[in-house]
Design goal:
Length: about 300
């Protein structure tokens, strides 16, 4: 029998070259623009976009473009413009956004550091011991000092010196009873004289008597600034009085009057005509007081 030769084994397939490089969305867009021979400015002008949008897309800085819907629109439009499938770029962007962000190690919670109570125990014990020592020293010093004697002197008005000395009481603590004091007594108040009693009664009568209001009337022949105050400082009149006017006020005396132009001013107090004192004139104006009696005097 003839032997048939076995077929020769096929040669082993070998793969040459390197693994395909994985590119980001921005790198694919930039490569497509460069293949088309366009610059960033030319691409932005044709798409009517800001060049910063093109730069952000090619650098994968999608957060600068706003919401996700805007990013998807720019990717689809720009990808189709430079020859990259826009739908594929949008899918890649969606997958990228679906991945959880890397953990922020700065936000990792750290265990709370608890203070060691033994660190506070020693200073507290030291402070308590110092306070106790200070209290003990104060107690010893306070107990060693004698209590000063207290003398209660109760002089009797009108009594002689010998009687007052006998009624004086001396109280001492931790000491023998002291001898009666011999210091002179305070002189009793002198008896009020009939004259002082009369003056006091008159003053009390004047204070109790009601104060009568005083009516002041000013007739002005010229324009003048006028101020009138009562005894309590309340303003009765404070304005410019025109020529030919008559200003009447009533208040508690004494009344204080200020005139800016005293020429041609006629003064009446309770219906009685009064002349402005010469010593009350101050240049063209005047400052005077209407007393309770109705007389006029210079204002101090």
């Amino acid at each position: 029998m003839e032997e048939t030769a076995a077929p020769a084994p096929a040669p082993e397939a070998r793969t040459t070259g390197t693994a395909p490089e994985v590119r980001t969305i921005g790198q694919r867009l930039r490569a497509g623009r460069e293949r088309a021979g366009l610059s960033v400015a030319a691409s932005a002008e044709k798409l009517h976009l800001d060049p910063k949008v093109i730069e952000a897309l090619e650098a994968d800085r999608f957060a600068e473009l706003g919401a996700s819907v805007y990013v998807r629109g720019h990717l689809r439009r720009y990808g189709d413009f430079v020859g990259e499938p826009g739908a594929e770029l949008v899918s890649a962007y969606a997958a990228r956004e679906a991945r959880p962000p890397p953990p922020d190690l700065t936000q990792v919670p750290h265990p709370e550091r608890r203070s060691d109570p033994r660190r506070l125990k020693t200073p507290l014990l030291g402070a308590a011991a110092a306070a106790a020592l200070a209290l003990a020293i104060w107690w010893v010093l306070a107990g060693s000092k004698p209590t000063p004697a207290r003398t209660d002197v109760r002089p009797t008005p009108g009594a002689d010196q010998a009687t007052a000395a006998q009624t004086q009481t001396v109280v001492a603590t931790n000491a023998p009873v002291a001898a009666p004091a011999t210091q002179p007594l305070v002189n009793p108040p002198a008896a009020a004289t009939p004259a002082s009693v009369t003056d006091a009664a008159q003053a009390h009568k004047e204070e109790a008597a009601p104060v009568r209001s005083t009516r002041l009337k000013l007739e002005l022949a010229n324009d003048s600034w006028v101020e009138v105050y009562d005894s309590r400082g309340e303003r009765l009149f404070y304005d410019v009085a025109t020529a030919g006017s008559v200003q009447s006020v009533e208040g508690r005396p004494p009344l204080r009057v200020v005139l800016g132009n005293s020429a041609g001013v006629t003064v009446e107090v309770d219906g009685q005509s009064r002349a402005i004192p010469n010593n009350a004139l101050d240049g063209e104006g005047a400052r005077f007081v209407v007393n309770r009696s109705g007389s006029l005097s210079r204002a101090r």
